TrEMBL record:
Basic and acidic residues bias: start-end ranges: 113-123
PROSITE patterns in alphabetical order: HRDC
The protein, known as: Mediator of RNA polymerase II transcription subunit 34-like
Biased composition (Low complexity): 100-111
GO MF, any single term: nucleotide binding
Any Pfam family hit: HRDC
Region (Disordered): 100-123
Length: 225
């Protein structure tokens, strides 16, 4: 479901402008924590996950941007105002976000069922997005790849930068494209092995059933004797 987030978007931009004017910087996590407190004046509180989604959306829309600071021990990612920030403050840019956390219980159950049936490639891409998130300063994993994007990648298995860009967009493709394509290309599933494993399990079940029946007959014979 799409939600209009004009008030929250303006609040985020205003907060970041004030922070920068005071020669300070914030990470995504720090920004979200500040938003949880300051959003109360808007009369509509978003949950932490929803605030994270909104910040990511603003980065992808170039309202905000990430700046990286490299040290000898880590890479820190900070959020600052982007080239389109003024358009948000002036009301010229409308910001809407699909809030997945507010979907119905039925939708949540459907997603859970899909995750239970997920393939090995789903798991590989999930691990990859966590790794990339850590490398890029501890950003949110779903800012690298959303679960919907992982599902689409698993289904379509793109083989080129052009195909990948149609699924995750130009910005993410430029940042993470080579690693994602490498992961997809290196993944090999063996359906024959799964089929053999299924047959073996079925065969073992039949053997156990026959053995159990034989034991029952034997016990009956002893009782009659």
């Amino acid at each position: 479901m799409l939600y209009l987030c004009a008030g929250h978007a303006k609040l985020i931009v205003s907060m970041l402008k004030d922070i920068q004017e005071n020669a300070q910087r914030v990470t995504m996590l720090q920004l979200v924590e500040k938003l949880k407190v300051n959003q109360k004046n808007l009369g509509s509180d978003l949950k932490k996950d929803e605030l994270e989604q909104l910040v990511i959306k603003l980065i992808l829309d170039h309202v905000l941007k990430e700046e990286y600071q490299h040290t000898a021990y880590a890479t820190n990612a900070y959020v600052t105002v982007g080239p389109l920030a003024m358009q948000v403050l002036q009301g010229k840019k409308i910001i809407t976000v699909e809030m997945s956390t507010r979907q119905s219980r039925t939708s949540s159950s459907t997603r859970s069922s899909k995750r239970e049936r997920s393939s090995g490639l789903d798991d590989k891409l999930d691990e990859l997005r966590k790794e990339l998130a850590s490398i890029h300063g501890g950003i949110f994993a779903h800012s690298v790849l959303s679960m919907q994007q992982i599902s689409t990648l698993t289904s379509k298995k793109p083989k080129s930068i052009e195909e990948l860009e149609k699924i995750i967009g130009k910005l993410k493709t430029e940042k993470y494209g080579s690693r994602i394509l490498e992961e997809i290309a290196s993944y090999k599933s063996d359906p024959q092995q799964d089929a053999d494993g299924s047959k073996e399990s079925k065969g073992n079940a039949v053997k156990k059933l026959k053995t159990k029946k034989a034991l029952v007959v034997l016990e009956s014979s002893e009782d009659e004797a």
